[in-house]
Amino acid sequence: MYKLTRRSALYALFSATMCLSIPTFVQAQTAIPEGYPDSYSGIVAKAEQEGSVVIYANTENTAVTPILDDFRKAFPKIRVDYIEIRSADLYSRVSSEAAANALRADLVWSSAMDLQYQMVHEGLAADYASPESKNIPNWATFQNKLYGVTFEPVVFVYNSKMVSQQEMPKTRLGLAKFLEANSERFKGKVTTYDPERVGLGFFAVSHDAKISDDLWALVKAFGATDTKFYISTGSMLEKISAGEHAIAYNIVGPYAFLRAMRDPNVKIVMPEDYTLIITRGAYITNSAPHPNAARVFLDYLLSKRGQNVIANEAHLFSIRADVDGDSTAARLMKEYGDHLRPVPIDENLADDLVPAKRLKFFRKWDQVFKSGQH
Amino acid sequence: MPELLVENIYLRYGTVPVLRGASFNVERGEIAALLGSSGSGKTTLLRTIAGLERAYQGKIEISGKTVFDGNAGVDIPAEKRGLGFVFQSYALWPNRTVYDNIAYGLRLRKLASAEINKKVGNVLDALGLEKLSSRYPNQLSGGQQQRVAIARSLVYDPAVLLLDEPLSNLDAKLRDEARAFLKELIKREERAAVIVTHDQVEALAVADLIVLLNGGVIEQSGTPEDLYKNPRTLFAADFIGNNIKFTGKIINVEAELIVMDCEGAIIYGKKLSNKEIGDEATAVCRLDCLSIGKTGDRDCIEMSKVTSMFLGERWEHIFRYNHLDVRLQTADDIPDKKAFIHIPRDNVWIF
Amino acid sequence: MRKEYWRGLIAGFTALFILAPVALIIWQSFLSDAFFNSLAKPTLEAYQFVFEDPDFWAALRNTLILSCGMVIIAVPLGAVLAFLMVRTDMPGRRILEPLVFLPLFMSPMVLAFGYIVAAGPSGFFALWWKQIFGSIWWSVYSFPALMTVVGLTHIPHVYIYVSTALRTVPSDLEEAARVAGASPIKVALRITLPLVWPAVAISAVLIFFLGFELFGLPYVLGDQDGRMVLATYLYKYNTLLGRPAYQFMAVIVICIMFITLPLVVLQRRMLQSVERYSTIGSKATRSTVIPLGRWGYFPCAAIIAWLGFAVVLPLSGVILRSLVTNWGPLVSFQDVLTLDHYRELGNLAITSRAIINTLIIALLGGLASVGIYVLIGLASHRSKLASTRALDFLILLPRSMPGIVAGLVIFWLFLFIPFLKPFVASLGAMWIAYTLVWLPFGLRLVSNSFAQVGKELEEAAYVAGAKPWQVAKDVILPLAKGGLMAAWLLAFLLYSREYSTGIFLMGQGNEVMGTMLVSLWNGGNIDVASTLAVVNTAIIGAGIAIALKFGVRLDA
Asked: How far apart are CA C250 and CA C24, in angstroms?
């Protein structure tokens, strides 16, 4: 029989207190996902000492807010200094600062895959084998330096009041034929990025051209319908909403989906011949002032928790296979599996930055466009 | 020792010469008038003394101290010359009261406010401005503004006072009063003053020394009486006083006496230049030397009357001989259509 | 002689300030790659490429046409407006006086956006017009439309210069003409115009020049037709060749600079005659007005129509957009009105930061910039030194660089000049960029207000014993105060609208409203973008209203 002595009462009290404090103990630990090496807490500790992480990225502040908010909850001692810069300017800034040995960024994260690759190629990226790299598909990582964080489809967008769902073509060739057949109806009502003035615009059509010649049929149809070429996604989507334009080609997924959520008239087509998938790559800089904080943030982005926020709060399309939701790679793979064509992060990306090749492409584009005009 | 010594000042704007060697001195208690027409350089000379214009040659001394010496490279800036300057436009600062306008110079000299108060008060009283001290310049009449400008220039006791056409902006009536007031004030305060004016009557009335400028050089300088009675050049003779002026040809020269033919009229006069028989010359005579004569009087010419004007204190008539016009002033009217005009040879200067 | 080293010193620093960016640009234009890239070689290829590009010549042509169009529209109308407001008894003058500056309120991008929402093919105004008249005859995206918008929104610039000149020139000459029987129009053309000709000519040169660095309006309105002006053409090189190609951007800036040189010479000639018009003296100039009588209602109506077009139309477009979720012919109003977007704006963390940063840089930065201009202005004021005269030539140069390039170049200067490096991503660096870009306009305003102070007022101070700095403090600055306050107000206005100059100089927490606006727009978040635009405009409006209450006159 157990005698309830003072000693045992104290002992019980002590155990109870320990039990009660375990949740908080565990809570601090859950910020570090399962499966990470034990040494990781050391990295977190150093990161907390560093106190902040400086990120240069081209994702809009407003889009990224949920991600930063959640990171702050996970790692309250690490302040995030997020500086939003458009992709071309981002490259200018990073390369200039690096040349002056004054690169202040710890992490550079951008949807311009070719420029990201270029920066890694120029030696600006640090080597870091993230514990999450096994959870990211192979095509989306490069040499433990550049990691793709998102899985974004490049889609068609249209105004359902001007084009019915049945009519709306689902392939490029289909779209080309549809526009040629209805060129009067769609005169001035089709839009896409100007490949000369938008890096991502060129990137998408350049890869379109590599996959199939259907793109050129489409360009001819652009000529036939006096397609308008834009720099800003916002402008295009706004005008689709307003009915000034009817169809937009090659819009980056998250923006299209966000607009479709707000405006029931705006609808999306995941092209059935193939859907390009691009990814927003991130790398830790070689000269990072806060290297450990950078690692913690990068790993967070790639972690299940981070990817969950990316998918379901920021609607940026997570890349991890084990995250569920509408804006996830998982759903896209399940629903569109074969059509999806991710652009891999590899040396071929450098191709897109060769001036001579670009100029040649633009000349062909102009030629084909003009041939479509009448 | 003159309070102000100006020696051989040369000044040009770009390549255009404006002052070509002007010199004069002013003693304590003396008023010098720089007289001339526009473009004569009189205002430029005044401003050069003040340091507002820059000569390239010459010397200026104030109270014995050299403030400018072209050869020695001395050029003390205006703010250190300690002169008083009254601008033609008065240049009162519109954003300051009368009191502050006057007190500014004292404040710059870092006087205690009690002393500033006293000095400003004194000068306000001296100029009859006591009641206006808190007014702004745009609330003052022209005459009042002028007095404030003068007060401002006097308050820090400058040895030399410079005035640029101080009376030209006043109405005719005010001008006469101001003229006397100015002279009395300067004499009483025992300053040396230089006044620029284009009005020869004003210069004669106010100055102890007249410096007549013509084209950047001093034509003649001397006392008013001197300039009035003994002009040395045609310009000097013509500029001062009310005159008649004839041009004509010299037909005879006898020692100091010249005989001229002016459109048929024979004029006798004093020789004041080196002209010979056959030269073109000009005869000048003061109006107050002319009178009506009788037939047979020496130096008379019969002329026809053109018109007569009643000026209040006298009559002025215009008489004509051929194309020669003569102005004559008399106490009473001359009703005749013709008269003999007496042009006394002793008062005619021929240049 | 008074030692005037300080003039030369200030002139020297200013020249350095201006020439450093210019030198960097010139150097960059002769390289094959970024100047900090070790692989860059000297070459003329950049010049060759640009000059062989038909798009360049098209852009140049468009820019010239646009600039000329701006001058043709803005200068006569601005001068007439000034004449009407200052010299006639046109009804409604008092009320219209502050309203005339409204077109300056809105940033060009907001303006363009507003026009699209209001008068674009799906715009509410266009739809309303269609309902009444059947069809719309205009296209917001056409070149004539762009020229009209640009011309009409630059009328205030001309107004400021010409009305200032008119207020300081006495009206006796005009009175004499009227007594002799001349009609108001004859008086305006034969008497008044020659009197203020220098001000008109100077503003024409400035407007022509502003046409060259136009970016925001052509960027948004010309977007879809790809019709480029020099600034938007220049921007193409950020992406055309893959990596940003600075050498081409530099070449274009050099071309713009070459065009400025004759303009500068022209402006100098005109300025020399402006010196004659100094008039702040102790005599208040009496100006009487020319009575227009009943005829005055016509110009009054025209001015109101102008304000309606230049301000009310685009502003209502923006306000409307901020209150609806969707718009267009397929949408009915009542369904979509909401205040949600404003709530959303309020919820964003960076909003308050952006607003505060904007206020700091616009209010304090604007003041500091005016301070700098005062120093430079004083150095050139009545100066006979060659160095200050040379400054006149250099002043227009910063304007040859469109805001984006200016920001980039200043960024580089900060990065690569050792003692400046630590400050690169700071509000201070942004302020320097703003001060440089606004230098020509602001300095001209400040210099003009100094020039209006009568020379004799300064001389009186010298004679009383004041040293040069005391003359500045006690005479020039107090009497030029009106102009200086106006300059501060304009700086506040322009800095609040800025978005392109500071892009590279933004550091952590440096966002300003302008850059936030562009970011929202690019990201497709037009809802919040328009609310931010409304807030931006409201802040500017509030600032101007406060200043006017304090008696600041933009045309003083």
From this structure: 9
- Is A319 a residue whose pLDDT tops 80? yes
Give the gap in angstroms from C-alpha B181 to the nearest C-alpha of chain C.
Answer: 23
Which residues in chain C are closer than 8 Å to A353, comparing Cβ atoms? 242-243
- Tell whether the model's pLDDT for residue A113 goes beyond 80: yes
pLDDT at A1 over 70: no
Cβ distance A235 to C325 less than 8 Å, yes or no, reads no
Residue of chain C whose alpha carbon sits nearest to that of B56 = C1
Alpha helix (H) residue ranges in chain A: 6-30, 40-50, 61-74, 87-99, 113-121, 172-181, 199-211, 214-224, 233-242, 253-262, 291-302, 304-312, 329-336, 355-372
- Cα B162 to Cα B27: distance, rounded to the nearest angstrom: 14
Tokens found for residue B93: 């600062």
Place of tokens 């009483």: B188
CB pairs under 8 A between A and C: 166
Look at residue A18 and tell me whether its pLDDT is greater than 60.
Answer: no
Give the other-Cβ count within 10 Å of A212's Cβ.
14
Q: Which amino acid belongs to residue A330?
A: A
Confidence of residue C331 (pLDDT cuts 50, 70, 90): low
Cβ-Cβ contacts under 8 Å, C241 against chain A: 355, 358-359
In angstroms, the separation between the Cα of residue C493 and the nearest Cα of chain B is 28
For residue B243, the tally of other CB atoms under 10 A from its CB is: 19
- In the structure, what pLDDT confidence band is assigned to residue B302 with cuts at 50, 70 and 90? confident
Q: Report in angstroms the alpha-carbon separations of C82 from B4, C68, C193, C201.
A: 51, 21, 11, 14
Q: Between helices C297-307 and C54-87, what is the axis angle to 10°?
A: 140
> Residue C385's pLDDT is what?
74
| B204 φ/ψ angles, rounded to the nearest 5 degrees | -60, -40
Whether C220 contacts chain A with CB within 8 A: yes
C3 by Cβ neighbours in 10 Å (0-12 / 13-18 / 19+) ranks as exposed
- By DSSP bridging, strand B4-13 and strand B57-62 are antiparallel
The set of chains that have 3 or more CB pairs under 8 A with C is A, B
* Interface A:B, ≥3 CB–CB pairs < 8 Å: no
pLDDT tens, residue by residue, B72-111: 989 999 999 999 999 998 999 999 999 999 999 999 999 9
For residue B23, pLDDT over 70 is answered with: yes
- Of chain A, the percentage scoring pLDDT greater than 90 comes to 71
Mutate which: C53, C125, C141, C224, vs A, most A CBs within 10 A: C224
* Residues composing chain B: 351
Query: Of B11-20, B136-145, C383-392, which gets the smallest average pLDDT?
Result: C383-392
Cβ separation of A91 and C243 shorter than 8 Å? Answer: yes
Which residues of chain C neighbour B153 with C-beta distances below 8 Å?
A: 463
Residue A93: how many other CB atoms lie within 10 Å:
27
Best residue in C217, C219, C525, C531 for a mutation probing chain A (most A CBs within 10 Å): C525
| Residue C316 in tokens | 């209502």
Mean pLDDT for chain A overall: 89
Which chain A residues have a beta carbon less than 8 Å from that of C120? 242, 244
**pLDDT class of A361 with cuts at 50, 70, 90:** very high
Q: C-alpha B49: how far from its chain's center?
A: 17
Q: What amino acid occupies position C314? A: P
pLDDT at A19 over 70: no
Q: What is the pLDDT of residue C29?
A: 94
Q: Is B351 on the interface with C (CB under 8 A)?
A: no
- C223 to chain A: which residues are within 8 Å by CB? 228, 230-232, 235
- Average confidence score pLDDT of chain C: 83
User: pLDDT averaged over chain B?
Assistant: 89
